[in-house]
Amino acid sequence: MTLSTLLVAVGPGDADRVDTLATAVTDVAVPTGARVVLLHVFEEDDFDGVRERLDQSDASPTAAARRQKTVRDLTAAFDDADVAYDVRGRVGNKSDAIVSTAEDVDADRVFVAGRDRSPTGKAVFGSTAQSVMLSAPCPVTFVRAGTT
Protein backbone atom coordinates (compact mmCIF):
# COMPACT_ATOMS: atom_id res chain seq x y z
CA MET A 1 0.00 0.00 0.00
CA THR A 2 1.36 3.42 -0.97
CA LEU A 3 1.03 6.10 1.65
CA SER A 4 1.23 9.74 0.63
CA THR A 5 -0.35 11.64 3.53
CA LEU A 6 -0.26 10.88 7.25
CA LEU A 7 -2.38 12.93 9.65
CA VAL A 8 -0.94 13.23 13.15
CA ALA A 9 -3.36 14.66 15.71
CA VAL A 10 -1.89 16.05 18.93
CA GLY A 11 -2.88 18.16 21.89
CA PRO A 12 -1.31 19.57 25.03
CA GLY A 13 -1.90 16.29 26.86
CA ASP A 14 0.43 14.49 24.45
CA ALA A 15 3.67 16.08 25.70
CA ASP A 16 4.77 12.85 27.41
CA ARG A 17 4.17 10.87 24.22
CA VAL A 18 6.11 13.04 21.75
CA ASP A 19 9.10 10.70 21.40
CA THR A 20 6.95 7.62 20.94
CA LEU A 21 4.65 9.39 18.51
CA ALA A 22 7.56 10.85 16.51
CA THR A 23 9.13 7.40 16.21
CA ALA A 24 5.88 5.74 15.13
CA VAL A 25 5.24 8.39 12.48
CA THR A 26 8.78 8.57 11.11
CA ASP A 27 8.93 4.76 10.94
CA VAL A 28 6.08 4.99 8.42
CA ALA A 29 6.84 8.34 6.73
CA VAL A 30 10.54 7.84 5.97
CA PRO A 31 10.37 4.60 3.95
CA THR A 32 7.19 5.62 2.12
CA GLY A 33 8.09 9.27 1.51
CA ALA A 34 4.72 10.29 2.92
CA ARG A 35 4.18 13.87 4.01
CA VAL A 36 2.81 14.55 7.46
CA VAL A 37 -0.01 16.88 8.35
CA LEU A 38 0.43 17.74 12.02
CA LEU A 39 -2.89 18.85 13.52
CA HIS A 40 -3.49 20.54 16.85
CA VAL A 41 -7.16 20.93 17.76
CA PHE A 42 -8.22 23.55 20.30
CA GLU A 43 -11.51 23.52 22.14
CA GLU A 44 -13.16 26.95 21.79
CA ASP A 45 -12.49 28.02 25.40
CA ASP A 46 -8.92 26.72 25.26
CA PHE A 47 -8.23 28.63 22.05
CA ASP A 48 -9.32 31.94 23.56
CA GLY A 49 -6.95 31.33 26.48
CA VAL A 50 -4.07 30.40 24.17
CA ARG A 51 -4.51 33.60 22.16
CA GLU A 52 -4.48 35.63 25.38
CA ARG A 53 -1.28 33.90 26.60
CA LEU A 54 0.33 34.53 23.20
CA ASP A 55 -0.84 38.15 23.41
CA GLN A 56 -2.24 37.72 19.92
CA SER A 57 -5.99 38.17 19.97
CA ASP A 58 -6.09 37.78 16.20
CA ALA A 59 -3.89 34.65 15.97
CA SER A 60 -5.21 31.99 13.63
CA PRO A 61 -5.59 28.42 14.88
CA THR A 62 -2.63 27.38 12.71
CA ALA A 63 -0.42 30.18 14.05
CA ALA A 64 -1.35 29.20 17.60
CA ALA A 65 -0.73 25.51 16.84
CA ARG A 66 2.80 26.26 15.62
CA ARG A 67 3.56 27.82 19.02
CA GLN A 68 2.50 24.76 21.05
CA LYS A 69 5.35 22.82 22.68
CA THR A 70 4.07 19.44 21.51
CA VAL A 71 3.95 20.68 17.92
CA ARG A 72 7.41 22.29 18.16
CA ASP A 73 8.89 19.08 19.59
CA LEU A 74 7.34 16.94 16.85
CA THR A 75 8.39 19.28 14.04
CA ALA A 76 11.95 19.19 15.39
CA ALA A 77 11.86 15.37 15.27
CA PHE A 78 10.44 15.46 11.72
CA ASP A 79 13.17 17.94 10.68
CA ASP A 80 15.82 15.60 12.12
CA ALA A 81 14.33 12.66 10.18
CA ASP A 82 13.92 14.73 6.98
CA VAL A 83 10.14 14.20 6.96
CA ALA A 84 8.06 16.75 5.05
CA TYR A 85 5.23 18.21 7.12
CA ASP A 86 2.60 20.91 7.35
CA VAL A 87 1.17 22.25 10.59
CA ARG A 88 -2.53 22.99 10.93
CA GLY A 89 -4.68 24.22 13.76
CA ARG A 90 -8.41 23.86 14.14
CA VAL A 91 -10.94 25.00 16.72
CA GLY A 92 -13.87 22.81 17.69
CA ASN A 93 -14.74 19.31 18.75
CA LYS A 94 -11.52 17.30 18.68
CA SER A 95 -12.74 14.08 17.11
CA ASP A 96 -14.87 15.91 14.52
CA ALA A 97 -11.94 18.15 13.58
CA ILE A 98 -9.57 15.20 13.25
CA VAL A 99 -11.96 13.23 11.03
CA SER A 100 -12.79 16.31 8.96
CA THR A 101 -9.13 17.13 8.46
CA ALA A 102 -8.39 13.52 7.49
CA GLU A 103 -11.04 13.86 4.80
CA ASP A 104 -9.81 17.31 3.70
CA VAL A 105 -6.18 16.20 3.25
CA ASP A 106 -7.12 12.77 1.87
CA ALA A 107 -5.13 11.08 4.63
CA ASP A 108 -3.97 7.53 4.10
CA ARG A 109 -3.54 7.00 7.84
CA VAL A 110 -4.29 8.90 11.05
CA PHE A 111 -2.10 8.74 14.14
CA VAL A 112 -3.62 9.57 17.52
CA ALA A 113 -1.87 9.40 20.87
CA GLY A 114 -3.36 8.10 24.06
CA ARG A 115 -2.52 7.49 27.66
CA ASP A 116 -2.02 4.36 29.68
CA ARG A 117 -5.19 3.18 31.33
CA SER A 118 -6.22 0.90 34.14
CA PRO A 119 -7.08 -2.71 33.21
CA THR A 120 -10.74 -1.73 33.00
CA GLY A 121 -9.98 1.43 31.05
CA LYS A 122 -7.94 -0.53 28.53
CA ALA A 123 -11.14 -2.12 27.29
CA VAL A 124 -12.32 1.27 26.05
CA PHE A 125 -10.18 3.97 24.44
CA GLY A 126 -10.66 7.62 25.33
CA SER A 127 -13.67 9.21 23.74
CA THR A 128 -11.66 11.20 21.17
CA ALA A 129 -9.52 8.27 20.07
CA GLN A 130 -12.49 5.93 19.99
CA SER A 131 -14.59 8.35 17.96
CA VAL A 132 -11.76 8.90 15.47
CA MET A 133 -11.21 5.16 15.11
CA LEU A 134 -14.89 4.61 14.39
CA SER A 135 -15.34 7.57 12.02
CA ALA A 136 -12.05 8.13 10.18
CA PRO A 137 -12.02 7.61 6.41
CA CYS A 138 -8.75 5.64 6.66
CA PRO A 139 -6.87 3.36 9.06
CA VAL A 140 -6.02 4.82 12.47
CA THR A 141 -2.90 4.03 14.47
CA PHE A 142 -3.25 4.49 18.22
CA VAL A 143 0.09 5.31 19.86
CA ARG A 144 0.55 5.27 23.61
CA ALA A 145 3.61 6.30 25.59
CA GLY A 146 6.34 3.72 25.93
CA THR A 147 5.28 1.49 23.03
CA THR A 148 8.37 1.80 20.84
In short:
The protein has six helices and five strands. Helix 1 runs parallel beside helix 4 (69-80) and helix 5 packs parallel to helix 6 (127-135). The chain has a single domain (5-144), classed as Rossmann fold (3-Layer(aba) Sandwich).
SSE order and pairing:
Layout: E1 5-10, H1 18-32, E2 35-42, H2 44-53, H3 61-66, H4 69-80, E3 85-91, H5 94-104, E4 109-114, H6 127-135, E5 140-144
Helix pairs in contact: 1-4, 5-6
Write up this protein:
With 148 residues, the chain is α/β, with parallel strands linked by helices. The protein has one domain (5-144): 3-Layer(aba) Sandwich (Rossmann fold), CATH 3.40.50. The protein contains 6 helices and 5 strands, in the order βαβαααβαβαβ. A 5-stranded parallel β-sheet has the order 3-2-1-4-5, sandwiched between helices. Helix 1 runs parallel beside helix 4 (69-80) and helix 5 (94-104) runs parallel beside helix 6 (127-135). The chain is globular and about 40 Å long. The mean pLDDT is 85.
Could you give the count of β-strands?
A: 5
Catalogue the unreliable spans.
none
Note the beta-strand portion.
Answer: 15-25%
Count of separate DSSP helical elements: 6
In which order are the strands of the major sheet placed?
3-2-1-4-5
The 3D shape can be described as globular
Main beta sheet = 5 strands, parallel
CATH class category: Alpha Beta
Q: What Rg, in angstroms, do the CA atoms define?
A: 15 Å
How many domains? The number is 1
Determine the CATH topology. Rossmann fold
Q: What fraction, in percent, of the residue positions are helical? A: 40-55%
| CATH architectural category | 3-Layer(aba) Sandwich
Distance between the termini: 23 Å
Please provide the ordered H/E string of secondary-structure elements.
Answer: EHEHHHEHEHE
Structural class: alpha/beta
How much is the average pLDDT? Answer: 85
| CATH H-level superfamily | HUPs
